[in-house]
Write a structure and sequence with these properties.
Largest sheet of chain B: 6 strands, mixed
Number of domains of chain A: 1
Strand content of chain B: 35-45%
Shape of chain B: globular
Shape of chain A: globular
CATH class of chain A: Alpha Beta
Distance between the termini of chain B: 64 Å
Structural class of chain A: alpha+beta
CATH topology of chain A: paralog of FGE (formylglycine-generating enzyme)
Number of strands of chain B: 21
Oligomer: heterodimer
Strand order of the largest sheet of chain A: 1-4-7
Distance between the termini of chain A: 24 Å
Helix content of chain B: under 10%
């Protein structure tokens, strides 16, 4: 593991800056490194440049505004190549995202194309898998809590509870050290490069798969080459991404936007 | 079956000209010279199929009716994956991931040579992608790679049922042990061409483990304890998905004079089962679920994780015959217990309680 913060004083300063930056709905995530579940070499770390990330998932309310202004992304009007038949199917009507409670919930059943278009309309973009995983490794206190057994257990419990309760309280999660909320509690989230089919050849390895969508993510040999075979929450996320294509619209899948720092 | 049995037995004893002459008389035998027959390990060619039917699936402990067809056909299997809270024990619930809404999943029955078209749906209320690895499938991932499907999606793939036998199936989506620990396994029977001998009753029993945060019997909604799973220390070891699934109203029922077949699987994900029925002797065991390797007069049969056995026995006595994993702490303290309730006329020659030893004799 690469240590993130060499000294206590710098750490305190860093946290102060992080909290300060958590404004305008986005939090600043400083540059650093993390160890992805599947690296180019098992256990190798990846550098992530500083970036900004929405503090909360995009809400139905925000998405309703978007489709109101962009008719081409309304249910029933969206082109089939951009979203499958489930797109926004949990809304009462194409311009009705439900009552006050529903409007405050993360928007789901949106395709990757739609999520991308939303972020672009805000002058933002989707986070990469590296950015998302790097930010999601943080607990309330630590920037990298992935090796913390209690933290890992807690995330697994949150994920497991979803199948017992299809409408989890999105507020039930926690605010991490960057001031980012609900990365684990409410929904799975889209990333820019979720699927090697949709990214440049640069990120591919021999055999045509990127390290993020390697066959190991879906097969029984899943632990081979993984940096941490006990990180079940990460396996779940990688498997989820591997099952998606750009049109997929899933009830438990939403998104948040990112921007360069 | 007849020619197969012959090839397994006597030809190995034959040599030289005798073996060659024997082989010439059997269609498909390509043994030359004095080599023993190798037809048990054969390249299997999917036969042409005619017709089409939709498979009848059953929930445990029920088994679909025997196949009466004498030719292979195309069989459509519609299976839906459903995640839902289910009973694990009295007062204990667990968020199960299921094939067909039950743990273990729906029983699938096809015939050797059938072309099976699997339609695997994942309910839109699911939170995870899932897929299926059928041990009856020859090819990449047992179908897993071809069947990964998102919530709300449906994957379709077809396969030839090349080898007869009783096979486990399970979800193979990462992290795989978690999907099994949450209930994603079941059995598929590929009946041999000639069918299985007729029995009066057939049952579907599958052993598996659950790893919960709380201790055995702790009430309420219990969650997966990953650490217990990695340590292979289950909280529950059960037949058919919950403590008591095969006792009380759930007890299996049969009558004296009947012959019973149990299709027994072990979903694991970790432990091997020492399957035993207290007070019965298995007249026949199809070891590890194969279609022809038989053992007779077996007391306890091993069932590996991700494996199966077919056991058959005739019922000579009435009573409650207890199904256990004979690693008996599992039966006594973790739930691995079921009942076969047999009614009918007694036969004291089979077992006769002559005198109890619970009180001292008079002097």
């Amino acid at each position: 593991m690469t240590p993130f913060l060499p000294a206590f004083s710098r750490r305190a300063l860093g946290l102060a800056l992080i909290v300060q930056a958590a404004q305008g709905g986005m939090a600043r995530v400083p540059a650093g490194t993390y160890v992805p579940l599947y690296g180019t070499e098992p256990g190798s770390s990846v550098s992530v440049a500083a970036f900004r990330l929405d503090r909360t998932p995009v809400s139905r309310r925000a998405y309703l505004s978007f489709v109101s202004a962009n008719a081409g992304w309304q249910r029933g009007r969206v082109r089939a190549v951009f979203a499958d038949a489930a797109y926004l199917s949990d809304w009462p009507a194409p311009l009705d995202a439900g009552g006050a409670d529903a409007l405050g919930r993360p928007v789901t059943t949106v395709s990757w194309f739609a999520a991308r278009a939303f972020c672009e309309a805000q002058g933002k973009r989707l986070p990469t898998i590296d950015e998302w995983e790097y930010a999601a490794a943080a607990s309330e206190q630590k920037r990298d809590a992935t090796r913390d057994r209690a933290f890992r257990r807690r995330i697994l419990d949150i994920y497991s509870a979803r199948s017992a309760n299809p409408n989890p309280d999105p507020k039930a999660g926690f605010r991490n050290v960057y001031g980012i909320e609900q990365m684990h509690s409410a929904v799975w989230e889209w990333t820019e490069d979720f699927n090697s089919i949709l990214v440049s050849d640069d990120s591919r390895q021999a055999g045509g798969t990127s390290r993020h969508t390697d066959f190991r993510a879906v097969c029984a040999a899943g632990a081979i080459g993984a940096s941490d075979p006990e990180n079940y929450p990460a396996f779940m996320r990688y498997a989820f991404r591997a099952a998606l294509n750009g049109r997929s619209s899933v009830r438990s899948l939403g998104f948040r936007c990112a921007a360069n720092a | 079956m007849l020619s197969a049995d012959l090839l397994k037995g006597s030809p190995r004893l034959l040599t030289g000209v005798a073996a060659a002459a024997f082989c010439v008389s059997l269609a498909g035998c390509n043994v030359a010279g004095n080599a023993a027959s190798n037809d048990d390990v054969a390249i299997r060619v999917p036969p042409e199929v005619s017709g089409e039917e939709v498979a009848t699936l059953t929930s445990p402990p029920n088994v679909p009716p025997a196949i009466t067809r004498t030719a292979p056909t195309k069989v459509i299997v519609n299976l839906e994956i459903i995640e839902k809270k289910m009973k694990l024990a009295d007062g204990v619930e667990y968020p199960m991931w299921t094939f067909g809404g039950t743990v273990p999943g729906s029983f699938i029955r096809v015939r050797e040579g059938d072309q099976v078209e699997m339609h695997l749906k994942n309910s839109s209320t699911s939170t995870m992608p899932h897929n299926i690895d059928l041990h009856a499938v020859t090819g990449q991932g047992g179908g897993a790679a071809a069947s990964l499907t998102i919530p709300g999606g449906e994957a379709v793939f077809s396969f030839a049922a090349l080898n007869p036998g009783l096979y486990a199936y399970h979800c193979a989506t990462s992290p795989v042990p978690m999907h099994l620990a949450n209930g994603m396994y079941g059995l598929i029977l590929v009946e041999p061409k000639g069918g299985l001998p007729k029995m009066d009753r057939e049952f579907y029993v599958m052993q598996s483990e659950f790893y919960t945060k709380g201790k055995y019997g702790d009430k309420g909604l219990q969650m997966l304890d990953m650490d217990k799973g990695i340590d292979e220390k289950p909280t529950y070891i059960v037949f058919n998905g919950s403590v008591g699934a095969l006792t009380g109203d759930g007890a299996l029922k049969a009558k004296v004079g009947e012959r019973v077949r149990m299709f027994v699987g072990n979903g694991g994900p970790n432990l091997i089962s020492s399957f035993h029925v207290i007070g019965e002797i298995f007249d026949t065991v199809y070891g590890e679920g194969g279609s022809s390797t038989m053992e007779h007069n077996v007391q306890t049969t091993l069932i590996p994780a991700g494996g199966s056995a077919i056991v058959e026995f005739a019922l000579e006595k009435p009573g409650n015959f207890i199904l256990v994993d004979h690693a008996l702490f599992r039966a006594f303290n973790k739930g691995a217990l079921g009942i076969l309730n047999v009614t009918g006329d007694d036969n004291l020659k089979v077992l006769n309680p002559i005198k109890s030893g619970t009180s001292l004799p008079k002097k």
